[in-house]
Amino acid sequence: MGLPLPCPTYRNDQMRKLILSVTSAAVLLGIALAAGVHSDKDSGTERSARGVVFHDANGNGKRDAGEKGLAGVRVSNGQGIVQTDDSGAYELAIDDDTIIFVIKPRNWRTPLNEHNLPQFYYIHKPAGSPELKYAGVEPTGPLPESVDFPLSPQKEPDQFKAILFGDPQPRDQKEIDWIAHDVVEGLVGTDASFGVTLGDILFDDLSLFESQARSIALLGIPWYNIVGNHDINYDAANDRISNATFEQNFGPAYYSFDYGTVHFLVLDDVEWVVDTPGKRGRYRGGLGKQQIEFIRNDLAGIPDDQLLVVMMHIPLTEVEDRQDLYRLIEKRPFAMSMSAHTHRLEHRFITRDDGWQGPEPHHHFINVTVSGSWWSGATDERQIPHTTCTDGTPNGYSIISFDGTKYALDYRPAGRPEDYQLQIQAPDVVSTAAEEETTIFVNVFNGSSRSRTEMRVDSGDWTTMEHTVRNDPYYEQTYAIDAALTNKPWRTMSAPRPSSHLWMSPLPKGLSTGSHLIQVRSTDMFGQMVSGRRIIRVSE
After folding, report:
1. Distance from CA of residue 112 to its chain's centroid?
2. Is 69 helix (H, G, I), strand (E, B) or coil?
3. All domains in the chain, ordered by first residue
4. Could you write out the three-class secondary structure of 475-531?
5. Is the pLDDT score of 155 beyond 50?
6. pLDDT band with cut points at 50, 70 and 90 for residue 21
7. How many Å apart are CA 225 and CA 312, to the nearest integer?
């Protein structure tokens, strides 16, 4: 976009009070000059946007008489950030391809549209998006005299929850219906404050954005969306245009907002590269200089000790310019990040081996996918595939819980009880004459290298199991059976991939003939314990 830089965000309370004590006109002039706002007098084209962030007392989305402006609210043009003055007014530099958005502060909410999508932005594209296979933004026409943002008060406690979807990725309406039955129906009535889809909302057919949104809207909570590599316009001539259809449906591809004590930073880390003009491009993990500048300005406006949650689609360690992001977040004492994309559940701890220079490893969470392994595998009585992820994790979603600067992650399987948190792989029958040792494998779906997993047989002592990274044996077995079938009416399962949450232990020797109970318990990095059982039989 190449927009001028903004004035710095004022973080010193005395300075803020001093600035806000100046007259509205003077403040606006200072902000405009610092942001590089100017007018093209020859053409008469105004190169700035002005507006007011206000308390929408009657909730109608319009500023009526008596509705006061809100001071100190941040507004961005996708690169620069300014604060509203004491009358709620702001001014920002723009060009003819700009999305202006308000950064939602704590205890305030933005309007929602009929699909419960937050309306926190204004798109300024006078000529609209270029002609593409899937429609982008229609021409928006002249810039309004005032681009106003309504906010309404709401209570946001220190403790709250959010729902995390990864890669729902439906190819067609049938698969959108599978999502509705497999996941959405069980979440109706949720006490979560909002939800997020961590990219790959769809599987290339961008005409389905609205249908997918309508289904998720039935949960009745605000729903944020992150762009994935299957959500972009593949016929776009460059990266700037590649989000045209996403923008039409959801607004800016990167932004931020506060909820409770947490600052959420949403990133677009899908970079569209066209090596040969006129040919289809390719995607890679990347942020770009303009987005990095927005991140820098955004983080300058929040306290150093506020919990920062960075959300994206492609895992952070696969982003080419991630070192620029590392430098901006690594000194913050409370920060974590999350993504999806790999169709596996994983907790990565980023260290100096990857260039991280923070005092402690950075926790990056890769969410389980709603689509599992791309809606593959045998179908159940609902005619929905089991679509187990390639690391052996059943498809599903996560719940992230917050309490001040603390957080915890819970995995939820689709179409199964909430307490189905691990899979014990053991033979049905063990022979006393067997010479080889019998190994018990346990896949703790939300486990990590920081989990402690233990096993015991009957009422014996608990023993610590060994953490290992390899293909899940149960998934390997299921995959082999599926691959051997011919003319099956479902999509063939995807090949196994290594699991980062697998444990192993030998079955104790000398067990008597008869039935025995294997018990497993696992405690994760948040202190949460899950457990499971499996009965085996020892035979002569």
Report:
1. 19
2. strand
3. 13-152 (2.60.40.10), 156-413 (3.60.21.10), 422-539 (2.60.40.10)
4. HHHHHHHHHHCCCCCCCCCCCCCEEEEEEEEECCCCCCCEEEEEEEEEECCCCCEEE
5. yes
6. very low
7. 10
Q: Tokens in use for 497?
A: 């991939």
Distance set, CA 314 to CA 270, 325, 339 (Å)? 7, 14, 6
Distance (Å, rounded) from C-alpha 472 to C-alpha 203? 26
How high does pLDDT run on average in the chain? 92
CA distance 465 to 473: 16
Name the nearest CA neighbour of 134 among 228, 204, 34: 204
How does pLDDT run across 448-458, given as a tens digit for each residue? 999 999 999 99
Both tokens of residue 270? 């899908």
Strands 98-102 and 121-124: antiparallel
As given in the structure block, the two tokens for residue 214 are 């309508």
pTM over the 0.85 mark: yes
33 to 40, 69, 125, 201: CA distances (angstroms):
15, 22, 23, 40
pLDDT on residue 34 = 38
Rounded CA-CA distance 283/516 in Å is 52
Q: Is the pLDDT of residue 31 over 70?
A: no
Is residue 363 within 8 Å of residue 339, measured between CB atoms? no
Whole-number Å distance between alpha carbons of 78 and 287 = 13
The whole-number pLDDT of residue 504 equals 98
Structure tokens, 421: 């948190």
245-273 pLDDT per residue, tens: 999 999 999 999 999 999 999 999 999 99
Comparing C-alpha atoms, which of 18, 85, 16, 21 is closest to residue 54?
A: 85
How sure is the predictor about 146, in pLDDT bands with cuts at 50, 70 and 90?
very high
Q: With contact defined as beta carbons under 8 Å apart, do 116 and 132 qualify? A: no
Question: Distance from CA of residue 395 to its chain's centroid?
Answer: 16
Residue 276 scores a pLDDT above 80:
yes
**Whole-number Å distance between alpha carbons of 296 and 326:** 11
Three-state SS for 113-159 is: CCCCCECCEEEECCCCCCCCCCCCCCCCCCCCCCCCEEEEECCCCCE
Residue 37, pLDDT above cutoff 70: no
> Any residues with CB less than 8 A from the CB of 146 and at least 6 apart, and which?
50, 51, 52
Q: Element (H or E) spanning 91, and its range?
A: strand 89-93
Q: Give the H or E element holding residue 28.
A: helix 24-34
CB of 52 closer than 8 Å to CB of 21:
no
**Residue 12: per-residue pLDDT:** 42
Question: Tokens 């059976």 identify what position?
Answer: 481
Mean pLDDT for 375-381 is 96
Evaluate whether 372 touches 416 at the Cβ level (below 8 Å): no
Residue 20 CB contacts under 8 Å (≥ 6 apart), including other chains: 27, 71, 72, 85, 86
- Give the per-residue pLDDT at 407: 98
